[in-house]
Design a protein that fits this description.
Helix content: 55-70%
């Protein structure tokens, strides 16, 4: 079994990826790989795992909508009606399954980061968050908000930076009038601090009724 941490493994997957996706997507994937590795250095995560997961995150991005649905079916994946209606978010899910079968040496944490880079999850690991963030902040991404987020690397805790990026993507989805994944609120709320239960006191409002 090949060593997934080796430079040889990385180069072979990189060369294979170049044939699977277009030039822009390939350049993006290299950018995510490099950014994920840099983020791992900042936040004390596994640099090699971040680099490999970043490279592989868009492994199935070359499929069009009918193609990715056929890919999921061929892999034996059972999709609910909602996900079937949102084929553009499926490439992470299908890639994780396909990569796990093609390269059993890849550890579960790398496959999970690939799977979760589109929709997120309620229990994101540090590696999951790093790849998710890197996908948004790699050098090819442009815009004032992206640059502001880049400036927060190292200033914010990893979890807080992830939430900033998650909120940014949600805002983009709303601005572009794209369908919203139904579990988005559940994912967001899972990272919020527990709220104190509000209990009204008797006559809490000191202002008397009527005019003086």
């Amino acid at each position: 079994m090949a060593d997934w941490r080796s430079e040889e493994f990385y180069k072979e997957r990189r060369d294979e990826l170049e044939k699977r996706v277009g030039p822009r997507r390939f350049k993006h994937s290299l950018g995510v790989s490099e950014t994920a590795e840099a983020l791992a250095c900042v936040y004390g995560a596994d640099k090699t795992a971040a680099r490999v997961a970043g490279l592989l995150h868009d492994w199935d991005k070359g499929y069009d909508d009918p193609g990715i649905l056929a890919r999921a079916d061929k892999l034996g994946m059972e999709l609910d009606a909602e996900l079937s209606a949102m084929p553009r978010v499926l490439h992470g899910l299908t890639a994780a399954v396909a990569l796990g079968r093609a390269f059993p040496e890849l550890p579960p944490e790398v496959l999970a980061a690939v799977e979760r880079h589109t929709l997120g999850a309620v229990d994101m690991s540090d590696l999951d968050m790093i790849v998710y963030i890197a996908d948004a902040l790699e050098p090819g991404r442009k815009g004032k908000m992206v640059q502001k987020l880049r400036e927060k690397v190292g200033e914010l805790e990893l979890r807080d930076l992830f939430l900033e990026v998650y909120a940014y993507w949600v805002q983009l989805i709303m601005e572009r009038r794209h369908p919203m994944y139904s579990k988005t609120t559940e994912i967001w709320n899972s990272y919020m601090p527990e709220q104190e239960v509000y209990r009204a006191e008797a006559n809490p409002d000191p202002v008397p009724y009527g005019r003086p």
